[in-house]
Amino acid sequence: MDLKLRAYATDRQWALLEAVEKHGSDRAASKAVGVHRSLIYTARKAVMAKAAQHGYAPDHDFVNPLPDGFKVGKITTLRDMQTGEAKIQWQQAIPDKERQEELIREAVAAMCEDLPRLTAKPKRDLAYNIALMNVIPWGDPHFGLHCWAEEVGEDFDLKIARRDLCAAVDYLISQAPPAPRCVLVNLGDFFHADNLQGMTSRSGNILDMDTRLPKVIRVGVAAMRQAIESALSRHEVVEVINAIGNHDDVLSMALSIMLANIYEAEPRVVIHDAPTRRHYLLHGKVLIGVTHGDQTKDQDLPGIMATERPEWWGQTRHRLFMRGHHHQDKLNEYAGCKVEQFRTLAAGDAYAVGHGYLSGRDMKMITYHASYGEVGRTTCSIDLLRDMAA
After folding, report:
1. Within a domain: residue 149?
2. Which of 283, 278, 292 is closest to 367 using CA atoms?
3. Which long-range contacts does 314-319 make (Cβ < 8 Å, 24+ apart)?
4. 93 domain-assigned
């Protein structure tokens, strides 16, 4: 058996291929391990296809597998006119984005294993209304964005981003009704850039960056922890969702992994760390979806919600998708579900201001009743923050 194929097989697939090698045929292997022959055939095809995608298919003279994280873009082979034998081969390697994200998640998870765990804090003896849930959506915080007042009308940097976000959360928590559950919803683009180059990873746009990326990460994590502590002061349980944004595909996942490790020993903090583009919250008859909003159309989100959470959809009456990305207030109601877009506290960068994107800036807290849906909303505007800081 070709051992080079092992790198492209799951443990289950490899076990089936080993059974064929041991017993001599698919039929004999299927009887020995108790599975239908079609499963063995499917496993073999899947392994061969994945190997070929990464440049290894010896039956077709592709014998130069690419390193993990890359896949074949194009292979050109020069053959002998008479014998058909391959003489020279050119191979183009392109990044395998999905696999690279997997590798990054694995690396971050490994690094975070040694992070210190925070000890559990005792609950405060508060009289909660168990029917309520407070949700605080953060529209695109953009930690690491740098703005110059002479260019865009207002200075904005890492220090201001942390001050504004934490002050807004503190204010909203101070106004919160006595709900036992609070959910901090980061709607994506928590970090302004995902790399040392200060560019968007998908489009390669150059961004207005403030200071070095390691410092941005350090301050961003500190701000997140401060917001969690504020929420814990008045709630029994605090949940955190970090949507994957178009500015921070990788760091958004890294942020969730770091927080999940830090709060591993704190049962009152729940980090939704699944590396998915959409997350969901269920509260009685209320169903909330969370996404950044850059990869889906608003009118498609209700159908996506019903497909991904059919049981929850069937048992709820009040359904909402929260999204960010466009930095402005917008609410549309579709059949069975609302889609709401939220503002940001961050200032507009040179590109946004230059193109006339001048939406207002605020952060909101929405209170949901398990039976009646939204029953309250509090807004903390940027003007209120500036007055409180004065």
Report:
1. yes
2. 283
3. 315/285, 316/282, 316/284, 316/285, 316/286, 316/287, 317/285, 317/373, 318/285, 318/286, 318/287, 318/368, 318/372, 318/373, 318/374, 319/286, 319/287, 319/288, 319/289
4. no
The structure tokens listed for 47 are 């392994």
Per the structure, the complete domain to which residue 32 belongs is given by 1-53
pLDDT tens-digit series, residues 285-325? 999 999 999 999 999 999 999 999 999 999 999 999 999 99
Spatial separation of the C-alpha atoms in residues 263 and 317, rounded to whole Å: 33
CATH number for position 190: 3.60.21.10
Residue 289 lies in a domain: yes
State the Cα–Cα distance between residues 219 and 7, nearest whole angstrom: 39
> What's the total number of domains in the chain?
2
| φ, ψ dihedrals at 167, nearest 5° | -65, -40
Q: What is the pLDDT of residues 11-27, one digit of tens each?
A: 889 899 899 888 999 88
